[in-house]
Amino acid sequence: MIYQSLKGEQWRHIYIVGDLHGCRALLDRQLIARHFDYQQDLLISVGDLIDRGPDSPGCLALLQQPWFRCVMGNHEVMALNAISEGERSFWERNGGDWFYQLSGARLVAARHALNRCRGLPLILQLTLAQRTIVIAHADYPASHYIWGQAVDTQQILWSRERINALQRGSGAAISGADAFYFGHTPLNQPLHAFNQHYIDTGAVFGNRLTLLQLQ
C-alpha cells in the first residue's frame, strides 16, 4: 500500500512522533505527560518503530492499538526482507540483532508482529478542518503532492537529498499540501523549513523523543 488517508474529525487530539527505534518507555512517559486519551486521541508515527533501542517488540505492539497509525520505515522494510528473503546480515548490521536473540514464543510473536508491518502505507494523508498534512518516513520525492501519484518508493524510505539541501540553506516548499512530516535523519533539534518538518531527534541515541500535536 502506498497511500492511506485519515480524516482528523474522528479524533479529539492528534499527535505525531519521531522515529521510536524501540524506545517504548520514552513514548509512554510522553503520552502520560500529555494526558493522552486512548479513547479519543490518535498518535501517528513516521516509521522506524524497531531496532537499536531496548524494546522493539513493545513498539511493534503499538500496531495493534486502535489509537495508533504508522507509515513504513526503512527499518521495517529491512526486517521484512530479512525474514522473508533471508537478507539477515544487512538488518543485523543496522540494529536487527534483537530479533535473532529471541527464541520460542517470543520469537514467534515478534515474527507475527513484523508481518503486520506489511500492511503499513508509505504515505499517510491526514485531512484536518483547514489543512492537508502528508506523512512519510524519509521524503515525498516530488515537488508537487497529488494523492495517488506514482513516486519512487526507495526515496520515500531512504532519501536524504531534500533534508541535505535544507541544511545547506537551499530548498523550496512542496506544493499540493499544507505540511509534510518526515523522520529518518537523526537531528539534535527538529528541523522546520518551508512546509517540511523533520522530527527524528535521535531518541535512541540518548537525545529527546519529539512528539508534536497536530490537532
UniProtKB/TrEMBL annotation:
<dbReference type="GO" id="GO:0008803">
    <property type="term" value="F:bis(5'-nucleosyl)-tetraphosphatase (symmetrical) activity"/>
</dbReference>
<protein>
    <submittedName>
        <fullName>Serine/threonine protein phosphatase</fullName>
    </submittedName>
</protein>
<dbReference type="GO" id="GO:0005737">
    <property type="term" value="C:cytoplasm"/>
</dbReference>
<dbReference type="InterPro" id="IPR029052">
    <property type="entry name" value="Metallo-depent_PP-like"/>
</dbReference>
<dbReference type="GO" id="GO:0110154">
    <property type="term" value="P:RNA decapping"/>
</dbReference>
<dbReference type="InterPro" id="IPR004843">
    <property type="entry name" value="Calcineurin-like_PHP"/>
</dbReference>
<feature type="domain" description="Calcineurin-like phosphoesterase">
    <location>
        <begin position="13"/>
        <end position="145"/>
    </location>
</feature>
<dbReference type="Pfam" id="PF00149">
    <property type="entry name" value="Metallophos"/>
</dbReference>
<dbReference type="GO" id="GO:0016791">
    <property type="term" value="F:phosphatase activity"/>
</dbReference>
<dbReference type="InterPro" id="IPR050126">
    <property type="entry name" value="Ap4A_hydrolase"/>
</dbReference>
